[in-house]
Amino acid sequence: MLRDTLKTLLSAWGPSGGEHGVADTIKELLGGHVDSMRTDVMGNLIVEKYGTDDNAKRIMISAHMDQIGLVVTSVEKEGYLRVHNVGGIGMKASEYRRVVFENGVEGVLVSQPVQQGEAKLKDMFIDIGAQDREEALSMVQLGDVAVYAPEIFSLGKHRVSAPGMDDRCACALLVELLLYAEDQKNTIVGVFSTQEEVGLRGAKVAAYALEPDLGIGLDVTAWGDTPETKLPDIKLGAGPAVKIMDSSMIATPMVRDALFDAAEAAGVAVQREVLPFGGTDGAAIQHARGGIPSGTLSIPCRYVHSACETIDMRDMEGALKVLLQFVNIV
Predict the structure, then answer these.
(1) N or C: which end of the chain has fewer CB within 10 A?
(2) What is the pLDDT of residues 158-194, one digit of tens each?
(3) The domain 69-148: what is its CATH number?
(4) Is 196 a known active-site residue?
């Protein structure tokens, strides 16, 4: 069930560069349901489900496993951890948040008082309850990464909030596609990518090596349906979004239009996404080698890069229907 798969993946620890726990969870979910599975040098988990057509296209569909985090850069004599961002950490979304390291050590992310102006990331520290530097270093090491603690909860009947929704919701979508697709026309090359939050790095390497016939990035997109936030023109519960463009790519018209055709065939309402910022694995695929026709299917998400990223399960269910059609019509 899509919601159960989502919750399972949201519970996994996996910042940029440390996605192995997410990959292991996906391997368990997909074991025995796909034709091949391997991990490349970047840590990308690459899964294939072969198509039945003699001239089957190889469609790379990529969803990134990593989430934003905070890496320990130094430890003060009092035991407080100084940190630097791994990906797009925002100050307003982070203060007094519960965080957790891979070894289970928990802490509180705090901003110290500043004399002038607003606090910046350099003014933040993590309190893990250590009495001094020696005790702190017995609990964590320099280079260890913390993420927002995985607190998953429902908002009303259809909506789910959690840190890491970007992009575990798309990972869940890709897992379900690989489970549900049977005797599809084209070969699905599912890439659960690494290090997207720090520069689309995993998908870039995978796309170059795989050289697919076309590509789809699966990711979240921003919202425009809360007070005083009206752009982009995207609403939760109004359907998944077909990307027209963002700051990293203009979707290949053939792929973009095929997504619209798939939505029509599936009877799913979709939104048109025009995002004046951001980037996804779709761009990494499109820019690989001499260029690969690519697009992006997005899940509307409120409060992106916070500890309460929020999606609507109806958008997820619609996206799955679109993808099941897409792998048969292109």
Answers:
(1) N
(2) 999 999 999 999 999 999 999 999 999 999 999 999 9
(3) 2.40.30.40
(4) yes
